[in-house]
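User: If only I could read backbone structure tokens as easily as an amino acid sequence. Those tokens are not coordinates but codes from a learned vocabulary of shapes. Could you go through the record with me and say what the backbone is doing? Here is the record:
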Amino acid sequence: MSSKQFQFHISDAAQSLGLKAVCFVIEGVRNQHTHLEFEKLKAQTLAQVTQDLSSEAIQTDPILGGFRALHDAIGRSNRKNVASPESLLKLILQTGGLPQVNLLVDIYNLISVKTRLSLGAHDLRAINGNVQLRLTDGSETFWPMGSDKPRVVSPGEYAYIDDAHNVLCRLEVRQGERTKITLDTTDGFFIVQGNARTEEAYLREAANELLALIKRFCGGQARMLSE
């Protein structure tokens, strides 16, 4: 599907939980292992992030608490299901930094820890049709990133799901293997997700910062998606 035809939608049931997202597609990016200027920016940003970072700060952060509230609302354990920004911040506490994956992934991970929002990206060429953020009914297929086989999808969770009922991302906890961003990715679908405790303006500000960094270091032509 062309990025000009690609659409994104949040179901009423997902919106009623407080889920909200700002998304865009971008074509013609040039991904790479890393970029010297980005690494300098990353170091500066992480220095700011870690200044007041502690286990207590993570536990009391209102945005991260909003993701835990989402999991509580659908009856999922917060011990087993940790939102991606919280996982990344805990990793920074443990290791002092973020893992280096590839430039596009490293860019959105950096914005995630800076904003406490859940950021994700998917190779547009691997997505079948359009994408919805909706509740699962148990018929979907999910192949978690890094797993050697698909997993059973439980009904009643929220997930990003394409027209072929493939789960791109489960909650804001685990992304799918099939649509992950690689060095060969040229066209991407990017997500900035919040919760009931995040304002729309804050999401858009984060999305604009993400897009600006991608264009600066990877190029590409983007289109914001209306929900």
In short: The CA atoms of residues 43 and 177 lie 28 Å apart. The chain has a mean pLDDT of 96. The radius of gyration is 16 Å. The chain has one domain: 8-225.
